[in-house]
Amino acid sequence: MLEKLIQKEARIAVIGLGYVGLPLALEFARKYRVVGFDINQERVEMMQRAEDPSRELPTSAFEGCDISFTAAVEDLKNCQFFVVAVPTPIDQHNTPNLGPLFGASKTVGQCLKAGDIVVYESTVYPGCTEEDCLPILEKESGLKAGIDFHYGYSPERINPGDSEHTVCTILKVVSGDTDESAQTIEDVYASIITAGVYRASSVKVAEAAKVIENTQRDLNIAFMNELSMIFDRMDIDTKGVIDAAATKWNFLRFSPGLVGGHCIGVDPYYLTYKAQKIGYIPEVILSGRRINDGVPAFLAKRLIQLLVKSDLGLKNARVLVRGITFKENVSDIRNSKVADLVKELESFGLTVDVVDPYANAHEVDEEYKIKLVSEPSGEYVATVIAVAHQDYLKQTPNQLCTHVVSGGVFMDIKGLFAGAPDGYAYWRM
User: Fold this and answer.
1) pTM here?
2) Is-catalytic flag, 263?
3) Domains in the chain and their CATH numbers?
4) Which of 79, 128, 263, 401 does the annotation list as catalytic?
5) Mean pLDDT across the stretch 145-161?
6) Residue 159 pLDDT more than 90?
């Protein structure tokens, strides 16, 4: 198949053109003929104009690419190598929502032909590809997996907002259902991945490797968050403790904070879901999730305590929160724990204004029913630096406290600054 792709006698289809699928599709399209498919017609039209709906890629990233963008299933029927890169979120009960994955599998299944290869990149629990997705592909296509068509799993490792670790510069894990299909999948990815390719021993191993990458980070951050809560009660600066401990060569440096987004705050639930399905209660992983999910409530309570201690009345009090995206310097608001913090503060009767230079106001309102303000106005009893956007790093604490009343609170969740201006209370995790 690789030779046919090189000669452009065969096509690659990328299903799902979000922060994972679009960069991958464009890189493939620098070498091969590619069809980029997304069910959102508005997003497709943006990409046809060389615009990235996720606002991660510049217009120049589309140049020199042999790619067509479409929302029509018919356009996939001339493709032979399918990559599924749709989101795999969780619902309000922290249960995996596999609707997008199953929908994509149905779409691909309707276009499968003998000899085709399907590769999943979406984060799932071990076994999902073979136990849940393959039956859909077989039903829709009338073909037999492993005989008529082949499949593999290659977990995405895109880091939004990171210009150094891009799709081509991150080592790529691949797997296939047979040695031959695994080799083909490896060859196709290796042709664009400059960092190299690692072949996992099986599809389940590759699935498991992906899900534990973010679970490990989640647990380490949960540990730091719990330490922060303990040290706060002891009036000890957590950042100072971490700085001191990090002088030991084998200390793993993680920092406390809000854990949101579509990876670290979501992926562990895919593993715990599967573990409980097979009769095992993953106590450590679930404990870490409880701690991290409880941070917004802890921060809200702590801010209330600081306001009371500063003798600032709570009635009609206004708080300014800076940042609502799930991480710094990106526009992605999915699973933002800042939104949870805002709701917690409002539950205490505070009026909260939120500003963010990266977030889309319409998307924030639609997702969280929070209306962004374009600029701070009036007086606030506190300002909360919730996201480490570079725009805030360029400012001084004095500038960030411009609209805060004398004696107000400067809450620096990420510990970006050494302290607050004179006359203000400073607190960090």
Assistant:
1) 0.91
2) yes
3) 2-205 (3.40.50.720), 294-428 (3.40.50.720)
4) 263
5) 91
6) no
